[in-house]
Amino acid sequence: QQQGVGLPGDKPSLCMGIPYIRLQCPAGTVPGLLRFYSAVFNTQAELRQGPAGEECWVPIGTDQWLIYEEVAPGQTVPYDGYHVAIYINGFVEAYRQAKLLGLVWNNPRFPHLRYDTEDEAVGHSEFRVLRLMDPQDGRELFKMEHEVRALSHPGFCARTWLS
């Protein structure tokens, strides 16, 4: 931590995997991102003051975060197709909300995985969202593919802990 590298908090991570991912997002989008994660995933994202300005901290596990920091006004944030897989409680409710907002996305790289209906999403134990939008005004804020997985997904390493 002498080089300024380390956890964003002062306590060690108790999670499996990485403690956080820091992402740049366009200027003025942090409040809308907080509303997006609250509306679609029913999560309690937080606005925090970071070194370069306001940030949106989205909890995605025990002591795990997606951290969005805004770039300077006018600066673009390119998207090159990267994605994040997240496991959530309330999978069906999240699917319904994403579908209602027109955000459910079928990635053309995986034509055998379609999520046009709730039954398809439940059958695959996942769905995808590409566009992050402000539910307040419908404005697209950011693009980043979210592979949203139910706790029943075969890739969930802690499935056996649930039984």
In round numbers, the mean pLDDT is 88
Uncertain ranges: 1-5
The ordered string of helix (H) and strand (E) elements is EHEEEEHHEEH
Global geometry: globular
N/C terminus separation:
39 Å
Spatial extent as radius of gyration:
16 Å
Q: In which order are the strands of the major sheet placed?
A: 1-4-3-2
Report the sheet with the most strands, covering strand number, pairing sense and barrel closure.
Answer: 4 strands, mixed
E-strand count: 7
User: What is the share of helical residues?
Assistant: 10-25%
Approximately how much beta-strand content do the residues carry?
25-35%
- Secondary-structure class: alpha/beta
Number of helices: 4
Describe this structure in words.
With 163 residues, this protein is of the alpha/beta class. 20% of the residues lie in helices and 32% in strands. A 4-stranded mixed sheet has the order 1-4-3-2, with helices on one face.
Quick overview:
The protein has 163 residues and is an alpha/beta fold. 20% of the residues lie in helices and 32% in strands.
Task: Give the SSE map.
Blueprint: E1 20-25, H1 30-41, E2 46-50, E3 53-61, E4 64-70, E5 83-88, H2 91-100, H3 118-124, E6 126-133, E7 140-150, H4 159-162
Jot down its keywords:
single chain; 4-stranded mixed beta sheet; 3-stranded mixed beta sheet; alpha/beta; disordered N terminus; 163 residues
